[in-house]
Known about the structure:
A: mainly alpha, B: about 325 residues, alpha/beta
Amino acid sequence: xxxxxAFWSILRKDMRTYYLKPPNISWGLIFPLAWAAMFFIRSGSxxxxxxxxxxxxxxxxxxxxxxxxxxxxxxxxKKGRSFERLLLAPVPLELLxxxxxxxxxxxxxxxAFVPVAMAAFVADLGGIAWAMVVPAVVLIAAxxxxxxxxxxxxxxxxxxxxxxxNFIRFPMVFLCGLFFPVGxxxxxxxxxxxxLPLTYGADLLHAGVQRAGRMPPALDLGLxxxxxxxxxxxxxxxxxxxxxx
Amino acid sequence: xxxxxxxxxxxxxxxxxxxxxRAVAGIDFEVRRGELFGFLGPNGAGxxxxxxxxxxxxxPDSGSIRIGGVDCTKDPKAAQHLIGVVPDESNLYPELSxxxxxxxxxxxxxxGKAERRKRARRLLDTFGLADAANRKFAGYSKGMxxxxxxxxxxxxxxxxxxxxxxxxxxxxxxxxxxxxxxADLHRTxxxxxxxxxxxxEAERVCGRIAFIVAGxxxxxxxVENLVQPEQEKHIMEIAVTATVPGLLAKSAAAFPALEFExxxxxxxxxxxxxxxxxxPLVRFLEDQGLEVTEARRMRPSLEDVFVxxxxxxxxxxxxxxxxxxxxQ
Lengths: 245, 328
């Protein structure tokens, strides 16, 4: 019980202090919407093309929202030494880091549904398999958050975290099948696409929104979950190695 | 809970290196329950590293740590509910108010909402910060930040409190208040582990003191026992209008029973094992062409003990700590 009081307090404090600030919401939304608009205009399709773009925009919103914020919440607190307060609390590191990341996961999930709400005004969203889309969004948010955490605990400065994140995020925009299928990539790039968690998340979203998935949904879900767990464990290992000297 | 009369902290053979630098070189000490224990040393001596090892922010290379009877060498989390830590920099959350910062810190130790609000209000009152309770921490003065950081360290009523340089870089009035707060905490039975480079502060508040130099503890004793040998010395400071070349050597030759030391331009310190006769000394200095403007007897202090044991001048140590980026 005592540990859960700490968990909720960390989550609540982060939501208040970081996630619900307008600049953070805009970073998670404006950037992906700008990308989507670019693809939309380039494709020359009408409003019927909105639905095809939706999985990519949702995935991008989650990816950019979660990874950008963790660079602040974790790296900034480490730099200002307030993170030491958490490390000194009688709470297991695993629970502590779950508390620090749950806010980002929730933020990512909310971000994902803002484009959906906007698309509902211009396109018919009937027939979407929400039972597939919702778990996909949650797992994309979790794996992206833990990817952001892994980056944040591998660097010392906030700007390093942002730079390092961009090296990972921008290639993912093109490699993970968000706006064009992985099958259209050059053969030598495809293994790289399959080494990235967002590929499986995007495939699930395509399956849920347009019935256009390339892999079995259960495999996508399993691999996304495995990526999330592996990235979380790698981050914990990095914290113990780098921050508890 | 620590057993009555037991040891609050027991450290044996504790060692830690960073790359090729041996920060803590196999130290042993114990802190008794309810004691105010001073840990003194120059910058880079290993004070902060020792605190980090004791509190679980660093892992020892070797040795053992028992806090409140709990072996936390392998599992530092095991004793974290017993301790409070006030780091050398105020590290609360700038975006939160003083009140919210304290409530948040209390929540980290699992205190319920009503209890943490009650304790936060009580501590804000005790620390004279009630008027600033709803102001953001970022807008606090340095002294207020230090006080709130100490309040955050004791919000969960820890049995052992680690204070790392609590008065560094703050004004005299705030430093006095903080020393008073430390003394009050000690009176309530809290065991306090205090690191400081202000020797006079340690002398004023601590019961026992350890001197650490280059990662090694060179002396541990009570303040009385440390100062006692120096008390038997007679010290006098003499102010003169100018100086002449070779004055110290000439003085030593004329008064072989006395030790002479030049503290700065125009100030000479004289030490002796017995009473110093001022008349002949003043006449000698005047014969050298100097005018003696003042001669006063000095009370030997812990600072003299520290300088004698470590060979480190405390003024240099203080200046080094207070420059930007100073400290460990």
